[in-house]
Specification:
Structural class: alpha/beta
Number of domains: 2
Radius of gyration: 25 Å
Strand order of the largest sheet: 1-3-2-4-5-6
Order of helices and strands: HEEHEHEHEHEHHHHHH
Shape: elongated
Helix content: 40-55%
Strand content: 5-15%
Amino acid sequence: MNIRFVCAFACGRGMAADSQRRSTYFAYGSSMTEPTHSHKIAVVDDDPGVLKALARVLRDDGWVVEAFLSAEAFLATPDHNSVACIVLDITMPGLDGLELQRCLRSTGRSVPIVFVTGHGDIPLSVRAIKAGATDFLTKPVPAKALLAAVRSAVDQDASSRQVSEKIVDLTERLASLTLREREVLMCLAEGRLNKQIAGELGIVEQTVKFHRAHIMERMQAKTVAELMHMTAQLGVTRNPSLLSGTGRTTATRES
């Protein structure tokens, strides 16, 4: 079945699901297309026809898909934290899309969300995007637009995770430095020369060079330019708590 518009066949039919069906996980069976993506996509919509259409388009594109008739059913699934993206209806009985988004954010879960709605509600779309949604699509959703939105959401999430993991790694490296090494690093981050650092810290220039070598090794920086890029990522500044050794994690830039 070639689905040109994902939800076109379901719109206008008034397909109402009763409360039991809305709280049930929908397993539509295996798609003819074998999954080619390792990421799992969750689709949440209280309209069974729309839900089935959205899920099928994604499965036909090679995604692993789980479909739910309600936000509550999604949250009740033990592995709901493993999804890479949620295609989410914004207007549903019970817990709606925006409430589910807030619920996930309150638990620290930053899963990318692509909202879909049968109403071109601009205020709602603005609220959703400001709250972190990656896209907002209006039904009937063209298959091409749906797939593009999901791919973009998954790619952005992967990139964000890589940056977060990098910051955590750099923070651990920074924490491995001694107090004196941190003092030297902060002076370097301010663009000071070895002679200037020696004068400010009351040590000889050769000692500054010694500390620089240790800093390069512990921070795993091959060049001074790379080290300066690391300090920029970490937001290293003249922080008294960092110098005292009590505020190691304060070297990470607050989001």
